[in-house]
Design a protein that fits this description.
It contains twelve helices and eight strands. The chain is an alpha/beta fold and about 250 residues long. The termini are close together. Bound molecules: phosphoenolpyruvate.
Length: about 250
């Protein structure tokens, strides 16, 4: 069975003290993750080590960076390298979030470079894709997402692809309170898996975790996660509230 993942994306929110408190609250609330499930916390870069310390020894709870750069090291003021992440024991990074694509002009080919350096350094990218509202309204969302996957991932071989987690996040559902229906989520997740199958074969496609993101909350997580091709969620707003995020963790498929 594919790994089921609840990924928290704190974005540029919370002070260090608030972040510490949030993690403590989450740890103290009853949650039941098993060896096939994981909760991943994508915290702001200055809090990565704090989060690592708080989650050390806690089963099935991991830390992720929200971004990294495509170069190994050098004169890139303000950027974070994969070596920096692995030197503090962080092995997940969110890449290609729609906010980074929109505000920082991250293109599919730039993201391909970031994917490459992550894989070379054993860091698992949580690769985000998803269409804006006008594309959904035009009904061309499958083609749009297919192009994102082709241009950022299709240079990989099957073994490399198996190290990637995909997060489908329709942009019109991010931070808007407007969730894709569970049928819409399933439809796109199945389309992504079919597309991966046509390039990499069924066996590989069946092993890739595809998370849904876009206004997931404690109250709607279960109906979305129960869909056969949905393997958990990438969660923004609701990940900042301990009870909400724990409810989302507990809604992962068993
Ligand atoms: C996100 O930022 O990845 C996200 C899905 O945000 P929200 O849950 O707030 O819609």
């Amino acid at each position: 069975m594919r790994k089921q993942i609840a990924a928290a994306n704190w974005k540029m929110n919370l002070t260090l003290q608030q972040g510490e408190q949030l993690l403590e609250d989450i740890i103290s609330l009853p949650h039941q993750l098993n060896e096939n499930q994981e909760a991943v916390f994508a915290v702001p870069a200055p809090y990565l080590m704090m989060a690592q310390q708080k989650l050390r020894g806690k089963e099935y709870l991991s830390v992720a960076a929200q971004n990294c750069y495509s170069k190994k090291s050098g004169a890139y003021t303000g950027e974070i390298s994969v070596d920096m992440l692995s030197s503090i024991g962080v092995y997940y990074v969110v890449l290609g979030h729609s906010e980074r694509r929109e505000y920082f002009n991250e293109s599919n080919s730039f993201l391909a470079d970031k994917i490459n350096i992550c894989l070379l350094n054993n860091i698992t990218p949580i690769f985000c894709c998803g269409e804006p509202l006008e594309i959904r309204e035009a009904g061309t969302q499958n083609e749009y997402v297919a192009k994102q996957l082709q241009e950022s991932l299709y240079h990989l071989n099957a073994d490399q692809l198996l190290k990637i987690v995909i997060a489908y996040e329709p942009i019109w559902a991010i931070g808007t309170g407007k969730t894709a229906s569970s049928a819409q989520a399933q439809e796109m997740h199945a389309a992504i898996r079919k597309q991966l199958e046509s390039k990499y074969g069924k066996e590989t496609a069946e092993c890739i975790s595809i998370l849904y993101g876009g206004s997931v909350k404690g109250s709607n997580a279960a109906e979305i996660f129960v869909q056969p091709d949905v393997d958990g969620g990438l969660v923004g707003g609701a990940s900042l509230v301990a009870e909400e995020f724990v409810a989302i963790m507990n809604a992962l498929k068993k």
